[in-house]
Amino acid sequence: MHYPVLVKPGKSLSSLQANMPMKKRVSAPAKAPAKAAAKRGKPARAAHRKAVRTVATASRDKATIRKLRGELKAALQQIEQLQAFANTDFLLGIPNRRGFEHELQRAVAYIKRYQASGALIVLDVDRLKPVNDAFGHAAGDQVLKAIVDVLTRQVRASDVVGRLGGDEFALLLWNLSETDAHAKAATLEADIDRLTFAFGGQTVTAGASAGVAVLTPHSDASRALEEADSAMYVRKAQRRHETPAAAAASSAVIASAAKQSRS
Hints:
single chain; 263 residues; alpha+beta; Alpha-Beta Plaits; four-stranded antiparallel beta sheet; 15% strand
């Protein structure tokens, strides 16, 4: 139903319409695009959080790896130290039998591969047991240390001096002919014969007998050691017959001291 519009006199309809208040247009809410944008941003934020967690995990893993590497390095160093201790004579600071045999096997392998040469000298100390019996093991240790000093002074840095046990030593000498090896053995015997020691107010001397085995590309480490050892016992028998005056006098002094210690 339509109602007539009353227009005052002197006013037109158009002017009336112009003065009528207009309804404000209500714009559509802008929430929909914002929600859509937020929805689109969720995967990006999730991916970012995942990336951050991945980086943090990787950093922890790297730190763990560095720590484990450090522990492994320390463990390997400790193993090397223990192996060195196991191969070393604690009294004299040179390779023991185990350490020397290891070096000898390496040397023989090298000689076979590169057609090199070398020599093995086995040396036995004379009159050490009587010194121990007469003057004590501290005196015997002093004799051994002096002999090792002589041996190490007579060899090169590439050579090896080891203690096979008790009063027996071995020397691994590189690039030495048989003649030179025998000459070196004789020099070692002479230098040790000249050593003198004062124990209990008495002067005694030491001595040594040396046997030689030549190392060639056909050598075997065990057989070479046996050969040098056998040659050493032959040489020891020869020296007994030589009976130098100094050795005889020293033996007499030691025997007298031993007799006094027993009485």
